[in-house]
Amino acid sequence: MSLNYRCPEFLVERVESNCIECQACERQCANEVHFYDQDFEKMRAKDENCVNCHRCVVICPTNAIGIRKHPSEYKENHNWTAGMINNIQKQAESGGVLLSGMGNPTKKKIYWDHLLLNASQVTNPSIDPLREPMELKTFLGRKPSKLEFDEEEQIKDLPPQLELSAPIMFGAMSFGSISINACKSLARAASEVGIIYNTGEGGLHEDLRQYGENTMVQVASGRFGVNQDYLEAGAGIEIKIGQGAKPGIGGHLPGEKVGPEVSKTRMIPEGTDALSPAPHHDIYSIEDLRQLIYALKEATDYQKPVSVKISAVHNSAAIASGIATAGADIITIDGYRGGTGAAPTMIRDNVGIPIELALAAVDDRLREEGLRNQVSLVVSGSVRNSADVVKAIALGADAVYIASAALISLGCHMCQSCYTGKCNWGIATQEPELVKRLNPEVGFERAKNLIEGWAHEIKEMLGGMGINALESLRGNRLMLRGIDLTDRELEILGVKLAGE
Amino acid sequence: MVNRQEKVLSGCAISGILNRKGKKFSGREIIDSIALMHDRSNGMGGGFAAYGIYPERKDEYAIHLFYDDLEAKNKVEKFLNCHFDISVGEVVPTREISSIEDSPLIWRYFSKPEEQKLSASGLEEDEYVAQCVMNINSDYQGAFVVSSGKNMGVFKGVGYPEEIGEFYKLEEYEAYLWTAHGRFPTNTPGWWGGAHPFTLLDWSIVHNGEISSYGANKRYLEMFGYKCSMMTDTEAITYLFDLMLRKHDLPLEVAVKAVAAPLWSEIERMEVEEQQLVKSIRQVYSSALLNGPFSIILGHQNGFIALNDRIKLRPLVVAEDEERIYVASEESAIREICADPDKVWSPRGGEAVIGLLEGRSEIE
Amino acid sequence: MKRIYAKEEYCLGCKLCEVYCVTSHSASKDIIKAHKLESITPRLIIESSDNLSFALQCRHCDEADCTRACITGAMQKDEETGVVNYDEERCVGCWTCIMACSFGVIRREQAGKKVIAKCDLCIEEEAPACVTNCPNDALVLAERAEEEGVQ
Ligand code: SF4
Ligand code: SF4
Ligand code: SF4
What we know:
heterotrimer, B: alpha+beta, Glutamine Phosphoribosylpyrophosphate, subunit 1, domain 1, seven-stranded antiparallel beta sheet, C: alpha+beta, two-stranded antiparallel ribbon, 5 helices
């Protein structure tokens, strides 16, 4: 049967008086929406193909294009929403699992937006970051609970640390899930601003080796691209247990994305599906995790901090405390709004918990158990701006990972179609003609600007609070107040209500 | 006693005098010095710490206590009797001062830890006492331990500092080290326990400023078992020094570099060895950094440390003559009692001024 | 002298360079009028085959064949700027230059008549319009030395 039961999602509008028929839109839409009609001598569009990525909108030299939500509406129903109905139509058509890209977009409470920051007035002066030093330097890694000296009164070396110029890192995104040009842009930006980017579970492409000092290499359940060389190439190693967008689920990079370069980097045959199992098949318990942590430390001569990344789930606090005692130097927690290249929609939208609550609970637990100094705490899962970063630090994080925000800086317009492999912005794609749309010379500059811009803003906010070093904000929940939160929520977050 | 949920804010005056030769002098001078800075306080709190005042009982912990009422006193005395051997328990002598009212019951106990309890606890003597003090302060409604060191005592209350000095008859005490504080709180009702100095064991702190890092410092201290029940900066500062100097046994310079850490830009310019030390301090004790404007005098039986925040947002002046070293918020407060010192200077931000008794090489 | 070089690995083949070239050489300098009311031939050519594309303009050769071939002396290389340009008045529309150019970057003016359309490096503007407006920095204006080897 040929009839598609779904209504088109978007409507492509063209201001005809503006359109000069240059056809740039046609050439830039990988979804083949726009076309030039010889007979009418004008541009037309196949609306049903549009995913609303805004590539054409941005590229059109005369601003002739607007993409709108399709006006056809279902009869109002707060239970059976358009999204629900469309999903069922899709599945009735395909019989498959619904897939989505990027993070959970559903309308649930975003706790960052219910937290407000403090500023100094009279009793202590605010500090002007343009005139006074303002320090954002951050070290990630295990710290002893007290400073130790040897017999000669010499200070004992600390365990290895990652040094960051600002408490922000680019989150794990593999080469394969994103293009080589996106990887290059982020890696170079990280190295120029003095932060870290994360390889994800995609191995390390030759061209990225030069950024080793700014690289976190990831070891995930598929073990793609992992060998001695790889472990030594980065500044730190991250064991990925879970990801906020799909807790408890493995990864799947379809064979068509495994071209020659991806195949070489991941060390798997070209064209085969790259499957990361849901669990690590050598980790069935916390003791096993400990073994892997120490195997990796042993392999790298205890020179690299080892991070363990989990998704934020119901008992994150207990898990995190187990991870700390298992020997991890850094714990990374990815909240339920964390992004992904592809995840089953039902999982993405319904599994896991908000990062803000998980962070507060984990930080509390680690402190209760006197473990907080031993591990650094990194959070991710939708940190959208510098204020979110500041709030995360005040709740107790040492640093954050940003991934969606980093991709947006490279051009991503959040159309959430990453899983189609036809990213018009050259990011979540392996097709050469699309990949080249992201010029890393341009990309790195944009990603770098983003971090620098956020760093400036963080300094402004710190200065306003009368603080001139980031560490004085870490876990300083007195700098936060809640609005529109219940007593129980405030209690978990460990913050007072605004006005208190 | 007030149930403290809210951070206490205040501005202030501080002053301190040490006779390096250990010669003792009466409380008159320190009262005169702090009185000169009358306008820096608002009558909501004043206090003094005096070292060397109980020579005949110098091996016993002198526990000074405030009680709201007899009920609190009975309860706490029961606790004290159970945990300590008390040789003397007495009222701290005071005189009537018209402006000073609502004073609590003020007692002091010279005591030693009860042997059996101490050995059962497995703690060092000092730690045992520190924990008992924190227990009283957090668990006993209506009671507050003012000081708990040996051969020292703290005298404080609600009023201008010079009135508090008169009230406690400080001219009758002789000490080799005095520190004083006049308080200008912005938001809290006068509360006797809330006045400075704040103490733990031998440590006493007077402090002018507001610590923006308080929330971070407090949660850090809690990890090491400290209970910041008073919600004051002074309390947190005292505990930080106690943690680093007593519990972690760090050299004084290290502790100073932790609370008033050099800037990274300065660290980059240091010699390799020093750089490594300071870098490690900043990593391990990052949560001990005191951020925000402050000047403090940390008193101890061996001497004192005076310190400014690292970008010097609060005043601090130091002077020296042959036997004594003076510190104060304002130079005039020093000149009031020592018209012509040999040397007067204003230390840089983050630069600690350490005054030690002759023959002592370390504070702890 | 500075010339325009193409980085074909980043050329999208979007042809916006062409759009802006036309606008820049229009009388109105208005993108919509230039395309709807005027008839202007772009001064550059976008070569493409499969995934490969790049924009090509006059190379402003040091030993320019077109200047030698020109029968009226309309085509000249400016000593000062190095730009190879032509004098519309003197051009008789013989198109010998078109045949002589080994890069094939000289075109007939579509509006007809005799004149030819070729890149003048937007000499009146701050930078060539195609370079300024390329959305992916695939065109650069550079001294040859820096860009040795780039086509
Ligand atoms: S898919 Fe993107 S490029 Fe194509 S029409 Fe829609 S918004 Fe434009
Ligand atoms: S890019 Fe804009 S002007 Fe060009 S054809 Fe498309 S809609 Fe028309
Ligand atoms: S504007 Fe740039 S990317 Fe587009 S065709 Fe011209 S040179 Fe290529």
